[in-house]
Amino acid sequence: MDLAYIPSPSTGVIHLGPIPLRGYAFCIIIGVFVAVWLGNKRWIARGGKPGTVADIAVWAVPFGLVGGRLYHVITDYQLYFGEGRDWVDAFKIWEGGLGIWGAIALGAVGAWIGCRLRGIPLPAWADALAPGIAVAQAFGRWGNWFNQELYGRATDLPWALKISDGPNRVAGTYHPTFLYESLWCLGVAALVIWADRRFKLGHGRAFALYVAAYCSGRVWIEYMRVDEAHHILGLRLNVWTAIVVFVLAVVYFVLSAKLRPGRETVVEPDASGGSGEAVAAVDAEAVPADAKADVKAVPAESEDAKAEAADAGAKPATSLSKAAEADKS
Predict the structure, then answer these.
(1) Contacts of 158 (CB under 8 A, 6+ apart)
(2) What is the pLDDT of residue 10?
(3) How many CB atoms sit inside 10 A of residue 171's CB?
(4) Count of Cβ atoms closer than 10 Å to residue 1 Cβ
(5) Residues with Cβ < 8 Å from 326, sequence gap 6 or more?
């Protein structure tokens, strides 16, 4: 008999009248808000303007959700388009099923659009948001707990996850891989924050560190899972994806450090209010018309003063010449 285990929720949804509140969606929403909040603090610390991170997230988050769902549906197409399946279920995102690989890939496209509109470099924005993304993933994994999904092999450890009977699952106690990944993501966030402060990472290297660190943990966590998945050469598809993405992240980190060492000095050009010429132009427009007339009159008065000074200087010279002529005579 199991004396200790982590219980699973009896249901993943609570109805508030006619409105369903789903644990999976709730965890995703909390993660997004925390990521934006943390990213905003880091962006301001690097010299950016408050609110910029949220403005770009308006583009990145919807793209990321679509990308995450597309990756899941494409790589697990048999769940939606196989015999006896209903393809409409592919749109039921609240039932779970978001692939982080697709979310990051398509989310980056949305972020690129937002950055282009604001005139800021995407790598700098990604560096600021990197730890927040890891924290968002930590929250998001608890959505899998609500849905009783993505658990590991059977175990009788004290922290085993108890799963009840249901579609595509057998009652028992299993490794809580959702918890392992949640804790790993929090560790990744702490690593990126520390490394960024210690080594002043820039030009996308903080984001690359996040990607590499997450992938290294995803490999062993994915290896423990027992849910249905496609295999290539004996390894789950997501294991291969993690390996490839890890290599790409490390290559980018190394090349970026050689080609663009240091950190960006300016992440948002207009964050300090613009250049001195722009400020002068604005000040000039703000000067009242009467004041402008007075300002224009100053040079004219100066010219008159110069003329008077010239005349005054000429009189002594004339007197001296007359005195000289008198001595000669």
Answers:
(1) 3, 4, 5
(2) 83
(3) 9
(4) 3
(5) none
Distance CA 110, CA 126 (A): 12
Torsion of CA 85, 226, 105, 127, to 10 degrees: 150
Structural domain boundaries in the chain: 13-272, 287-328
Annotated binding site: 141
Looking at residue 95, the DSSP 8-state letter turns out to be G
AA letter at 177 = T
Residue 281 confidence (pLDDT): 36
Neighbours of 128 (CB within 10 A): 26
Query: What single-letter amino acid sits at 86?
Result: D
* Residue (of 101, 72, 77, 95) closest to 87 by Cα position: 77
Mean pLDDT within 262-277? 71
pLDDT digits (tens, 9 = 90+) for 64-106: 999 999 998 888 887 788 777 888 888 887 777 888 999 999 9
